[in-house]
Amino acid sequence: MHDNHAAACLQVLTEIGQLGPLRRELVKSVEPTLHSGAAGVLWHLAEQGPMRMRDLAGVLQVDASVASRQVAELAAAGHVERQRDPADGRACLLTLTPSGHSSLADAVDRVVSRFERHLEAWDPDHLQRVATDLRRLREDLSNLLPA
Question: How far apart, in whole angstroms, are the C-alpha atoms of residue 147 and residue 143?
Answer without folding.
Answer: 8
